[in-house]
Amino acid sequence: MRFFILLSSLFTLSAAAQFVGEQSYTLPAEETRIGDLYFGGTMLRVEGRLDGSALAGAQSINVSGPVTRNLFLAAQNVDVSGAVAGDVVSLCATLNVSGTVGGAVRAGAGTIYINGGVGQDVLAGGANLVIGKNAEVRGDIATACRSLDIDGIVRGDIKAVARQVRISGSIDGDVDVTVTDKLTLTPDARIYGNLRYRSSKKLDIANPDGVFGNIEHVQLPSPSEIKEMKPRPGTFVTFLLPFTILSVIGALVVGFLLVAIWKHVLAEGLARSFAHWGRTLGFGAVGFLVGPMSILVAFALIITIPSGLIAAAAYLICLYLAKVLAGMFAGRLLFRIFGSPDVSLWWAAPVGIVIVYGLCAIPIAGWAIWLASMAVGFGVIAELLGMSRIT
Fold this sequence. Notes:
The protein folds into 2 domains: 14-224, no CATH class; 233-390, no CATH class. It has 7 helices and 21 strands. It has helices at 2-7, 223-229, 233-275, 277-300, 305-337, 345-360, 365-390, and strands at 18-20, 24-27, 32-34, 37-40, 43-46, 49-51, 54-63, 71-80, 88-97, 105-114, 117-118, 122-131, 136-137, 141-150, 153-154, 158-167, 170-171, 175-185, 190-191, 195-199, 215-219. Strands 1, 2, 4, 5, 7, 8, 9, 10, 12, 14, 16, 18, 20 and 21 form a 14-stranded parallel sheet that branches. A 5-stranded parallel sheet has the order 11-13-15-17-19, with no helix packed on it. Helix 4 (277-300) runs antiparallel to helix 5 and helix 4 crosses helix 7.
């Protein structure tokens, strides 16, 4: 149990921070909350003034009130319509920013829609990125996505990798894009810098007169040429398969050791995770994000670098354990679905661990599954830490 107590340092950034573990929480419009807000649950609404930062994990997050510092959000849907003095950092399915952001926007999401002011850069990855008509980005935009639409104003440069790019707004800087299918400049588009695009073919950009600088096309290899240059799949399988098998065996050994030492504690922690799955996922996402930030803060202060090194080592341990614990969670869930909710961890752990490690090994989709397993695993760790404090 002392081991879990030691890991609790990863979930503490500031003594002034206020933790909220309710299923839903609303900061009323007429109230002001002083200090950082940490939330893990189902729904978060910030309608009043938050004098600090917010770090939250939930299904839905809506921020319509002013925030004096930063937002660190992980959710299915995130809507920021209030004024944020600092940065907005988010991992979600859908991100909508219609308010004013004084700092930067850094996001990974399926769809990212920005229709407000951004004082610094936009760094985004996802399926779709839309800079709306009312948006003004005073910094640069760097993105990798399926489609990029620029309808507003960008004061800096644009660097993008996308399948399709459409520009109908105004860009003061240079545009440097890698495009596979289509690059379109509408009649309203204005690029006051240079346009450089990389593609396997020369594209019809529709409105070359909208570019006040130079237009440059960089020829890329065609798909057939790339296919010829690719190594045979068997090469990767032969090289990576032994390491994959060893990683699964190592996880099974760690899982059996945890069950042997803390069987009853783990069983209770998993039961609490199932009973409060929204809280588990919320606090898991928060813990997954808090770790790197606390380490960066420790290194930035210089005097706390030794603590940062210890925290970094502990966080790496948590990353490994989170995947193993996510496997145990998945194993218990699978046996519950098939009508055996009370199956022993000696059976649930190996089955779940093999399934989670196998799913995480799937190309592309495996990254999303890995992120989900981290949220679940860190959530189980948070439940175990809560149990240790109670006892």
